[in-house]
Write a structure and sequence with these properties.
The structure is a homodimer. Chain A is about 35% helix and about 25% strand. The first copy, chain A, has 14 helices and 16 strands. At the A-B interface, helix 1, helix 5, strand 14 and helix 13 of A face helix 1, helix 5, strand 14 and helix 13 of B.
Chain lengths: ~475, ~475
C-alpha cells in the first residue's frame, strides 16, 4: 500500500470530552506501548533461560529471575509459595520411522507426550491401526488392536473460528488415547499433533494413564501433521507397514518448586484480593514464549503499569506466576488451597494463557450480574479494538479458586496462530510481536483498573 | 494452556434458526478454510516468482500466472488490460557507513527509495543534519543544510492502535523529504524506515521530486530503524561525523504491462459492475507476500469461492489485479479511465491491500445511506470476529473510480505486524498465516455476496 489516499483513511474522528476512565486507560495503553517491560522480560525468559519444564533447572532459574524482577518494582511484598511438582524428563531425542518392507524406512518427526513411559530400550516396532477416536477403537476391539500401535489421526476442525474450540474437540486423543488403547491390548500410541497447519513439528502435551496399573502403561508420542498425513496415506496403500519408535522419557520423584507472587496492598480494602497471572512452567521443546511466558510477563507488567501511571489500587493486587500448569496444575491447586486456609477473600482473578497475540477480548466466568457489569465496560475498550466480552472459562491456574463468588476472567487474544506453535519446538521468542504482547498487557491492566475502581458485585448472601 | 477447563470455555452457545444469509456466509467460510486456493497461489507468486516491481520480468510472470489461474476457474471472461508503467531499477546493492574519523567506519543497512536518482559513481560523503521533518528543515535554512546529507528521523508514533495512522503521520519524510531538502542545497537524504520495530531491515517505498528539475535531484535512501538509532546517537556525541552512501538505481523508459481482469457476468443486472482486487506489483526487496500478493490471491479466491458455494451473482463481478500501485498507480488510473470511456456502471469496489492478517473489518467510503446499509450487515460477521465497520478510505487502486456514486470499501486486517514487513526484505511468504489469509478471503466474499444480493442504494438523482 502506498501513501496516496492513506491519509484519507483516518478522517472524521469525532472528538468528545473524555471521561476519567477514558483518560486513565489511554495513559495505560500509552505506557504499555512506549515503556512496556513485558517484551524485555520475555526475551530473558525465552532466550536466556529457555523451556521451563516443571522440576527443571530452567524452571528454577525462571522462579529466581521473576522473583528478582518483581523485587525491583518496589511492590509491597514479593514471596515464593513452595509447591511440590512432578518431574518428567524427555531423555534423549525420540526417533521414529515407517517401515514399508524390512530395510525400507522413512523417518518421521515425533516427540514423547508428557507423562508417557519409555519404549523398551531398543524401541518398539509393530503394525499400525489408524482410528479417529475412542469410539472407533472400541468398535474395532481387542482382536484388531492387540499387539498393534494405535494411530489417533482425527485432525483439528479448520472451520471453527476459535481455534481453542477445534483443540478441545481433538485433545482427548492426546490426553487419554494411550489409556483407551491399552485396554484393548495396544502396545503403543501415536497421536496426530494438535496443529491446524501441515508442518514438521511434533507437538507434545500432557497425557494421563488414568487408573491404568503401571505394568499396563504403553508409550505414547505425537507425530507432526505432515508425518501423520504420510503415515495415513502409506497405511491406505499398504496396511501391513510397521511403525518403529523409541523414546526414553521417565517420571522421576516430585521435586520442590514455587509459585512466584508479588503484591501491592490495597489502600482502602486490603482484604479484597485481585490476582492476575500466567504460568511460569512450559514444555521443553521450544522456549515457551507464547505458552505461557507471554502471560507471565504481561501479568508482571500489569502491576508495573499501574505504578507507572500513578494508580494505587484500593484493593490488594497480586501477580501470581503459577508453577506446573502443563503437567499437574500443582501451583494453581496450592494457591487456591492457601487462599482457603487463610480465609482470604479473592474477588477477582484474571489469567493470560492463550498466547501473546493481539488481544480480542475477555472470557468471563461469573454470575449474570458481574458479567453484565464487566460487559458494561466494553465501550471503553473499543478504541483499542478489544471487542469480545463473552461468558466462558478463564484459565486453568485460577480455576481452582472458583467458589461461586470470585469473578474469573481470561484474556482472549487472536487465536489463529496459537496452535502453529503450541507445545512445539517453534514456540519461540521471534514468533511474539512486541506490540501485540504489549496490547495484551494494556488490556489486562485496564480491566484490573476498572475492577478495582468499581468493584465486583458481592454475592447476595453477603450483601443482603 | 492445558486441556482441563478448556472444554468449559465454549459452553452456552445459543442456537437459533439460521437465516439464508447466515447459512450462505457459513458455507463461504467453510469453503475458504477447507478448500481455499489463496495460500497455494500466494506460494507460487512469492516463492516461484518473487518480488514484482513494475516493469520487471517477475511482474510479467505474475501477469501470466494469474491470467492462467483465472482462466482455469471457468469464468465468463479473462483478459489483460494494457497499461504503460514506469520502470525504476535498484541496480547493485546499496552500501553505506558512518565515518567518525577518517578510516573509522560503521556500515549500516540502507536501500534506495523507489524513484530516487543514483549517487555519484564513487558514492557520496557529507556531514549530516538530523531533522524531524520539513518544518525543522525550513527553520534551519540553507546556511545549515547546504552541502549536507539531511537525515529525516521522526519515528512512527507507537501509541496509535491503528498502525496505518502512525504511517500516515511519518511518510511525508520518505515521499517528499528529498524534494524539500534539495531546496535548501542538501546533497542527499537518509530517511528512517517506516517501521515501528527496532531491527536491521531498511524499508523502501515511493518518493517524488515534485517539480524539481532533473539537475537538482538528490539521492534518497531509507536506513533501518537500528541504523537510524545508531546514526542519531552518534551525531549527538559527535556532530562532525560524515555519512557515506552509494546507490546506482535509475529510472528507465516506461514499458508495457497489464492489469489482469477476470469476470463473472451478472445473471440479472449484468451492467451493474462490482469489482474486487489488489495490486500485482510489489517492491523488489522481499517477495511482496503481504503487500500485496495477499490481496491479489484473496480477490481471485472471492470469485472461486462464490462458484464453489454455488452462488451466481446477479451483478457482474470482476476481479482486477492492478499493476503499478507502488510507484505510479498507472493500473488503477487506467482501469478507471477505461470504465469512464466505456460508460460502465461500477456500483461497488472492494480492495485488499493492508496485508494478509486476521481480518478485523471494513472501511467504507460511501454516502451515509450506503454506509448504514453495509454497517447493518455487521451482525452477520460477528461469528467470524469481523467487527470494525468504519467510515474511511478504501484502497489506492480503486480510488480513481470514485465518482460520488460507486461505493468503495477496503478490507481492514489486524495492523500490528504490517509495518514490520512493509516494503522490506522480510515481506515474505513465511510471514503469512494460511488461516488468517483465508479468513480475509472469506470476509471479502461474504461482503460481495451481500452487496450483490441486496444491491447498494443508487444516488438520488438517478432514483428520483
Amino acid at each position: 500500500m502506498r501513501i496516496l489516499l492513506i491519509i484519507l483513511l483516518f478522517v472524521g474522528f469525532a472528538s468528545h470530552a473524555q471521561s476519567e476512565d477514558e483518560i486513565k486507560i489511554k495513559a495505560i495503553y500509552d505506557a504499555a506501548l512506549t515503556q512496556g517491560k513485558a517484551y524485555d522480560w520475555l526475551n530473558h525468559l525465552s532466550n536466556q533461560i529457555g523451556g521451563r519444564l516443571s522440576g527443571s533447572v530452567q524452571a528454577q532459574l525462571a522462579v529466581e529471575y521473576t522473583r528478582d524482577q518483581l523485587d525491583s518494582l518496589g511492590l509491597d511484598n514479593v514471596w515464593l509459595q513452595p509447591v511440590m511438582v512432578p518431574k518428567w524428563v524427555r531423555g534423549t531425542p525420540e526417533y521414529a520411522y515407517l517401515e514399508s518392507k524390512p530395510g525400507i524406512t522413512n523417518s518421521v518427526p515425533i516427540c514423547a507426550l508428557g507423562g508417557s513411559v519409555a519404549t523398551p530400550l531398543g524401541g518398539l516396532k509393530a503394525n499400525v491401526v489408524e482410528v479417529k477416536g475412542a469410539e472407533e477403537l472400541a468398535a474395532l476391539g481387542r482382536e484388531t488392536i492387540e499387539g498393534k500401535i494405535v494411530f489417533f489421526n482425527r485432525p483439528m476442525d479448520p472451520t471453527l473460528i476459535n481455534t481453542f474450540q477445534s483443540y478441545s474437540g481433538c485433545v482427548d486423543q492426546r490426553y487419554s488415547g494411550a489409556a483407551e488403547a491399552a485396554k484393548f491390548g495396544a502396545v503403543g500410541v501415536i497421536v496426530r499433533s494438535m496443529n491446524l497447519r501441515l508442518d514438521d513439528f511434533p507437538h507434545t502435551g500432557s497425557m494421563s494413564y488414568g487408573e491404568l496399573p503401571v505394568a499396563e502403561r504403553i508409550p505414547a508420542a505425537a507425530i507432526s501433521t505432515n508425518g501423520a498425513e504420510l503415515l495415513s496415506t502409506t497405511l491406505k496403500l499398504n496396511p501391513g507397514i510397521k511403525f518403529y519408535f523409541k523414546q526414553n522419557c521417565q517420571q522421576l520423584e516430585d521435586v520442590q518448586s514455587f509459585n512466584v507472587i508479588g503484591e501491592i496492598r490495597g489502600t482502602t480494602y486490603p482484604n479484597e484480593i485481585m490476582i492476575v497471572g500466567g504460568h511460569l512452567d512450559s514444555w521443553d521443546l521450544g522456549d515457551g514464549s507464547h505458552d505461557d511466558g507471554a502471560g507471565c510477563v504481561q501479568s508482571m507488567d500489569v502491576l508495573r503499569l499501574l505504578k507507572v501511571t500513578g494508580y494505587k489500587p484500593k484493593r490488594t493486587l497480586r501477580v501470581v506466576l503459577f508453577m506446573n500448569e502443563e503437567n499437574g496444575l500443582r501451583g494453581g491447586n496450592a494457591y487456591a488451597e492457601m487462599a482457603r486456609k487463610k480465609n482470604e477473600n479473592h474477588v477477582f482473578a484474571l489469567e493470560s494463557d492463550a498466547g501473546g497475540f493481539t488481544p480480542r477480548g475477555f472470557s468471563i466466568d461469573a454470575n449474570a450480574e458481574n458479567f453484565q457489569l464487566i460487559k458494561g465496560w466494553q465501550a471503553l475498550f473499543e478504541p483499542y479494538l478489544v471487542h469480545m466480552f463473552i461468558k466462558g472459562g478463564s484459565g486453568a491456574d485460577i480455576g481452582p479458586l472458583k467458589n461461586g463468588e470470585v469473578v474469573l476472567a481470561g484474556l482472549r487474544p487472536d487465536s489463529q496462530r496459537y496452535f502453529d506453535h503450541h507445545h512445539a519446538e517453534n514456540d519461540t521468542f521471534e514468533h511474539v510481536n512486541k506490540r501485540e504482547l504489549e496490547l495484551g498487557a494494556a488490556a489486562m491492566t485496564s480491566l484490573i483498573y476498572l475492577v478495582d475502581k468499581y468493584g465486583v458485585i458481592p454475592p447476595k448472601k453477603i450483601k443482603g
